[in-house]
Amino acid sequence: xxxxxxxxxxxxxxxxGAGRLSLAEIxxxxxxxxxxxxxxxxxxxxxxxxxxxxxxxxxxLGAAMLRLGTGYLDVNELRSxxxxxxDPLAARSGxxxxxxxxxxxxxxxxxxVFRPDDTFQTLDVGSLLPMHATALxxxxxxYGATPPARLxxxxxxxxxxxxxxxxxxxxxxxxxxxxxVEEYTPGxxxxxAPIRAYGGLVVGAIxxxxxxxxxxxxxxxxxxxxxxxxxxxxxxxxxxLGAARR
Amino acid sequence: xxxxxxIAIDQGTTSTRCIVFDRRGQLVxxxxxxxxxxxxxxxxxxxxxxxxxxxxxxxxxxxxRRAGATIxxxxxxxxxxxxxxxxxxxxxxxxxxxxxxVWQDTRTDTMVGRLEGEPGAEGVRHRSALxxxxxxxGPRLRWMLDRHPGLRERAERGEVLxxxxxxxxxxxxxGGLHVTDVTNASxxxxxxxxxxxxxxxxxxxFGIPRAMLPEVRPSIGVFGTATAAxxxxxxxxxxxxxxAALFGQTCFAPGEAKCTYGTGSFLLxxxxxxxxxxTHGLLSTVAYQIKxxxxxxxxxxxxxxxxxxxxxxxxQLELIxxxxxxxxxxxxxxxxxxxxxxxxxxxxxxPYWRSEARGVIVGLTSYITKGHLARAVLEASAxxxxxxxxxxxxxxxxxxxxxRVDGGMTADNLLMxxxxxxxxxxxxxxxAAETVSLGAAYGAGLAVGYWPDLEGLRRNWHRAAQWLPxxxxxxxxxxxxxxxxxxxxxxxxxQA
Lengths: 246, 496
Fold this sequence. Notes:
The complex is a heterodimer. Chain A is α+β, with helices and mostly antiparallel strands. Helix content of chain A is 41%, strand content 20%.
């Protein structure tokens, strides 16, 4: 694709140049029309690969470009951007909400909203959950995170076989949401959906957890209304992070 | 039945937001736009009121679109606004006269110093229950009238109008209704807080023509019907942003308090129908008034710079790319390394009220990294809260038992934990961090019967997060002592 080739050329030019370059300098150097160059720069700016100096209007490589190898979205930024959507999810579902990202083969809880019943609960931001036994973890695994080599058993329902897990993750990708029904804690269930940033990149997952009787029907199937609530919240956060509507 | 919503317009210092709320007080959609900050001279801060109105006109339909709702599903609009920011406009054309002068602006400091010594100053202080300070809109208005030749004469003829932001927005929404609410009016120094109307003596003291002032109305009660932005929808409430947050936190009973962490931070304690005069540097202010009922009052501790210190760290020092990253950077170290930042950028507010103070960074050694600075930035917000809570406890004779918090900075876990640590009380965040907007929505919904009563609103309040104190008492005392020594270094920097 020509546009990607051109974007790569713009990035190479900015990486190689000394200091910031103006639009005119970039378009001249690459022999591209100013309008085309401007379009490419604006898109690169939107995803953080290019930054524009506020005073001069000149361009340079963005901070996101330098951090390509290390997760691109700061976890505190993710919490800050999703807090407004996590609250309504807790209110509508009546359950505790957590947002997670991947940290060294586990789910790092980056945000936690109490179940809105005003009982005593403890904030567990910063704690780690197993990937294969929680809805948050499965949502992250289904969209690219690497599963741990050893799948520990927590309950009789935990998926401990890699083939079994792969099948479950295929189902997650088809459905667009994940669940754990007593796979981590007996009597507890959880539901989650992926949070996407620009280009569809999955940067986290948002979900609810609570008593299995509340989250699931008598046949242990997650209640459709709660699934819809979780997916709506995930979409709202994703939209704020710049993912296209889907 | 078509679902009906209430819309809040939150006209803040850095941005304007339109938020759609449902009957449970939950956020359905949000549209936000920052506006330009003008800094023409050190200490001066201005906004373009016309730009802000254009943003409201655009954001309203955008928020509705995002909610998938239509205008006929909106039961009412409520306004919460940055307080004390002073707008002048031409009655005939509706065009602003110059830029709005923002609450953080300190251009009136010399004038305020002079006015303080004049006879009548004590009377103004008594009637307004406020100290003479650059913070309030009355002195700002006087400055504008003095500065522009011919303006006072035009104001006397009623050709030039004054308003705080809600007055400007209601004027534009309704096509010419010139009104304010008691909470915003109580921040001008021109209001008599007992009669809840403009004080003729205070107007004379500041030399402000009555003809340019809006009519003072209760905060909660239908102001009028919008003809622009939300045509046909009733405006049910207008409150200063901090009073709106108190209302949104459902602090309806005397003794209930909240702190909102935004650009600045504001701790308000409901004192009920009784006005409590502070002897410890707090302000007395109107909390809200429901139409047909007596006003409720509050004690307020205002901190000028909290979130804006993080913004400064991001934009001026460029040590982080986004505000939330301050927590990431602060967590690269385990303590402040002995470094303290006192952000007296435009003087110190409560409980000191020192307009001549300016900011300091103390305790610098070659050991200090940007991580320590990030810690010091966050800790500054917590220690400033502690000073205000101490003053409030002394004035009210009660010890605060829990602190209800809201605002964007409640997303910062490190900060919230540190606040719990230095106050030694639990810090609680409700299930709606956007309490400023929610308070405006609650007021508007009450006014039109969308919500039946205060009890109904209380049932919407739920705990979403809680931070419990874990700091050793000895360390708390040592750190507080260090902070207070750092504060003393800011005094007397600007010399008259």
